[in-house]
Amino acid sequence: MITSESVEQTCSQVGEYSDEMMAEEFDRFFRAQPAICDFVVELTHQSGQRVQELALFLSYMVVKTLEIGGPAGIGAVTRETIEAAYGESESWIDHMSRAEGVELQSALAASFNKDTEPCLLQYVVSELNQPLDDGAELDDNEKGEVFFVLKTVISSL
User: How wide is the angle at C-alpha 157 spanned by C-alphas 41 and 103, nearest 5°?
Assistant: First the structure.
């Protein structure tokens, strides 16, 4: 399981990258995890560039965090694995959409407690609540879309 220290270490390391190094890292990410990248692009292609870029960046950060703090040798995710994780995420969203008020908060807390990577999900949620580089903020639908994509990516890994 990923710890908050691994997330912080990844954020610190990536924060020191030059633009050239970041471009190289993204090229490596696209080669190492093509199914994840294709999935993110397919799911966000109608949502606008900033949603797509944020979803790709957060997917990169999740993979990078797993490389730094997870078990050795993270392999390439297959399309089949992502499709299975997508189905699980859809079921989770459906379950959460039926809950309201206190029941929703309880269901979310229980879900985070049993999730295999709560620190990664917490990182994603905190990033979604931050302004983008240009100072703009995502609306609730955009946040929900990116969260859904990232929950699926995390589950597939």
Answer: 90
The reported pTM is 0.86
- Alpha-carbon span 46 to 52, nearest angstrom: 9
Alpha carbons 48 and 46: distance in angstroms, whole number: 6
* Tens-digit pLDDT profile for residues 49-86: 999 999 999 999 999 999 988 777 688 999 999 999 99
18-25 long-range Cβ contacts below 8 angstroms, 24+ apart: 25/60, 25/64
C-alpha distance from residue 37 to each of 29, 79, 125 (Å): 8, 10, 20
SS3 state of residue 148: helix
Residues ≥6 apart with Cβ < 8 Å to 116:
1, 154, 155
Measured on CA atoms in the order 17, 18, 22, 28, is the torsion positive or negative?
negative
Of 67, 43, 65, the residue nearest 54 (C-alpha): 43
Using CA atoms, how far apart are residues 52 and 43, in angstroms rounded to an integer?
A: 9
Nearest C-alpha neighbor of 146 from the set 56, 14, 18 = 56
DSSP-derived secondary structure letter, 130:
S
